[in-house]
Q: What sequence folds into this?
């Protein structure tokens, strides 16, 4: 069996009185691509944000590469996050910095790399996402698709072991979705471990090893893309897919 | 109003003294004379806008307080064998300055009234003048003495004997109080008041130097014992010093030295009024601008530094820090800058002797910090939460996130508001003139006193303020555009 990278055990999350995540369990193996799908408000983002502790789970355990996360100190959490890249729906590029500075900020400040090394890596990553010529631009002058590709390069600059994506294409105009998905597909092909919250069923079908269907704060159904998309067992999965496919 | 504030300050300082468990200097044993001799200086407090008693002249590019009172003080210091130091401040601030050890004595054409005698000691009388009324020359036929002013508006210096005389002895009087004689003369010329009550020598000086004014010598005020007399004020409970000074005054009275002093003052007044063009007084304004800019620039620097700290305290999750931040910001924003300036100079000055300029800078900086803190807090809150999350998800610590991501963006968002704060600081810093800091406002009044011209100095100062604020706002706009261009 492949080594297990992330392990989720009995995780719950409450905001005040409302329980948003209910007793979640799951495992992500090294090199796997997990796609999390489900209706709006089901708790997908909250789940993803619990993985790198942007949200603190109310109870339960999350371990990453054998290390239990919920009891870490602040410094240890910072260190942990270096190994988990995150890409947001709204890109969240630093608006006060050029594209290049966005990508090399964390390597310089956190990893304390030499300026020349950091720049070289950053330029390589920008070339990898096809944006080397935009290095000196500010984010506001880029299209949404370009911004999201920079955001992916920025996360990769820390050389993470796993990448978390929260609906990376939902805020994009349809003609730009493809360029971002291509970059993600390349990443998966290179063997990157990925957890992807997405509404792009085509991407989930072709790239995911596992699809987790989330609704009402629980994983209602898990399986391979074929199982989930061809033979869904759960009524809620069926209803969700029917709605998506007719849209 | 000012008087009320002075009282508030006294209350506050007494409060602090009680809290700190120290005794008031007044209650200490009488070491008043030995103290002066030990330090070798005698500090005179005065409000140099009252010719011929005291006023400013420009000698060799520096302004200097001269007048009869200064000559008397020089003699007193000479007789005591110490050096005279003259400290300028508003008339209103003089008594507080005495009580808080800022000055050793007060000579400001001050009369030893029973009310004043309750809070300070007085020397023997060194000058007996009458009370006169200055009017516009065109009104000479209408007004003859105080009784002509029934139901008319009259002016006098706030907190002065003349103010009380007018109030009590003119039926249906409408007294208007202003801090500066030069402002009162302006009010007279623009018919805001019909007459200004002032000491005879002072009235004479104004009439001699302004052909549009006339004076009513025989004002027919019913003067009690103290009210047309002038004496030197000392801290309560300093008989040793008072006795020593009285010996000098006896000599002055015997030899009729005041006549010579008044003549001496007259020659200064003539040099002052020989050339009353504003250009001739440009050095006054230059000095004023220099101080105004100095105070503003240092206060902006510390205002931002402390403002960031207080903003972070207020945003802190640590309850104590948060509470301290809120308390500071709300308290400072809830009290007038004027009181804060007086509190730092007189109140804190009870324990540590802070020069007026430093006190002014401290007060203005601390005040600005509270406003800047609120602006910065707003700026920090205005940065999208996603920016912070993106930085944290990359492994940046809280501090790194703040320094590299949140603060630069906050600064850009608040730049216009911050700019407004600095521009208003240039204007509001003028309040330090009340403790005698020679900023632009202070110098404006000095020029008014020296030239007997009311309006021109105001126009010049107004233009200077406008040029300062306008160029600053252009400069800030330039940087704002630059930041916009970048992002
Ligand atoms: N900080 C918060 N405080 C209170 N409630 C929250 C908070 N964040 C999320 N929620 C609630 O938790 C529930 C799950 O939200 P979440 O964003 O995880 O859903 P989602 O599956 O990502 O939805 P979407 O597809 O719309 O992004 C929602 O009902 C939401 O209102
Ligand atoms: Mg979501």
A:
């Amino acid at each position: 069996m492949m080594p297990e990278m992330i392990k989720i055990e009995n995780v719950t999350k409450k905001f005040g009185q409302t329980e948003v995540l209910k007793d979640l369990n799951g495992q992500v193996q090294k090199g796997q691509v997990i796609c999390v799908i489900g209706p709006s408000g089901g708790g997908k983002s909250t789940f993803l944000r619990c993985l790198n502790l942007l949200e603190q789970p109310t109870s339960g355990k999350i371990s990453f590469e054998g290390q239990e996360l919920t009891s870490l100190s602040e410094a240890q959490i910072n260190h942990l996050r270096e190994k988990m890249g995150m890409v947001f729906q709204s890109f969240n590029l630093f608006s006060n910095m050029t594209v290049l500075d966005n990508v090399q900020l964390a390597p310089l400040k956190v990893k304390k790399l030499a300026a020349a090394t950091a720049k070289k890596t950053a330029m390589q990553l920008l070339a990898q996402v096809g944006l080397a010529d935009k290095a000196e631009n500010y984010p506001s002058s880029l299209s949404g698709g370009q911004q999201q590709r920079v955001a992916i390069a920025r996360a990769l600059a820390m050389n993470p072991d796993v990448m978390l994506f929260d609906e990376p294409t939902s805020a994009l105009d349809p003609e730009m979705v493809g360029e971002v998905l291509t970059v993600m597909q390349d990443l998966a092909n290179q063997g990157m471990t990925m957890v992807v919250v997405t509404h792009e069923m085509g991407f989930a079908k072709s790239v995911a090893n596992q699809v987790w269907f989330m609704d009402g704060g629980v994983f209602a159904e898990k399986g391979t893309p074929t199982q989930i998309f061809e033979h869904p067992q759960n009524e809620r999965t069926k209803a969700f897919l029917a709605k998506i496919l007719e849209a | 109003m000012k008087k009320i504030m002075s009282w508030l300050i006294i209350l506050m300082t007494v409060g602090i003294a009680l809290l700190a468990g120290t005794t008031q200097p007044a209650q200490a044993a009488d070491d008043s004379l030995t103290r002066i001799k030990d330090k070798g200086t005698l500090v005179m407090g005065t409000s140099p806008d009252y010719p011929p008693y005291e006023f400013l002249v420009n000698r060799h590019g520096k302004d200097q307080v001269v007048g009869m009172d200064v000559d008397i003080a020089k003699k007193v210091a000479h007789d005591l064998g110490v050096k005279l130091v003259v400290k300028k401040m508003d008339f209103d601030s003089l008594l507080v300055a005495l009580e808080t050890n800022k000055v050793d004595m007060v000579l400001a054409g001050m009369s030893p009234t029973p009310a004043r005698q309750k809070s300070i000691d007085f020397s023997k009388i060194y000058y007996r003048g009458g009370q006169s009324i200055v009017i516009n020359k065109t009104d000479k036929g209408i007004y003859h003495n105080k009784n002509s002013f029934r139901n008319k508006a009259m002016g006098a210096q706030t907190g002065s004997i003349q103010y009380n005389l007018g109030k009590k002895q003119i039926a249906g009087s409408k007294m208007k109080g202003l801090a500066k004689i030069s402002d009162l003369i302006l009010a007279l010329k623009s018919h805001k008041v019909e007459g200004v009550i002032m000491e005879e020598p002072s009235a004479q000086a104004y009439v001699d130097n302004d052909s549009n004014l006339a004076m009513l010598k025989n004002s027919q005020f019913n003067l009690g014992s103290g009210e047309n007399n002038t004496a030197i004020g000392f801290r309560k409970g300093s008989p040793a010093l008072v006795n020593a000074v009285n010996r000098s005054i006896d000599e002055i009275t015997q030899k009729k030295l005041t006549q010579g002093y008044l003549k001496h003052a007259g020659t200064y007044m003539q040099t002052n009024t020989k050339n009353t063009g504003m250009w001739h007084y440009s050095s006054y304004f230059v000095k004023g601008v220099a101080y105004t800019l100095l105070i503003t620039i240092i206060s902006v620097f510390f205002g931002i530094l402390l403002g960031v700290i207080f903003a972070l305290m207020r945003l802190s999750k640590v309850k104590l820090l948060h509470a301290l931040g809120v308390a500071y910001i709300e308290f400072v924003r809830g009290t007038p800058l004027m009181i804060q300036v007086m509190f730092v100079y007189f109140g804190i000055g009870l324990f540590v002797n802070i020069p007026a300029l430093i006190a002014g800078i401290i007060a203005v900086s601390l005040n600005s910090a509270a406003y800047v803190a609120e602006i910065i807090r707003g700026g920090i809150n205005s940065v999208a939460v996603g920016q912070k999350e993106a930085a944290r998800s990359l492994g940046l610590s809280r501090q790194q996130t703040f320094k590299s991501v949140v603060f630069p963006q906050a600064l850009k968002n608040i730049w216009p508001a911050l700019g407004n704060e600095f521009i208003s600081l240039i204007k509001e810093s003028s309040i330090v003139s009340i403790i005698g800091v020679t900023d632009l406002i202070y110098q404006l009044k000095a020029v008014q006193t020296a030239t007997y011209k009311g309006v021109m100095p105001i126009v010049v100062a107004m233009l200077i303020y406008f040029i300062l604020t306008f160029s600053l706002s252009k400069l800030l706009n330039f940087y704002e555009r630059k930041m916009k261009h970048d992002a």
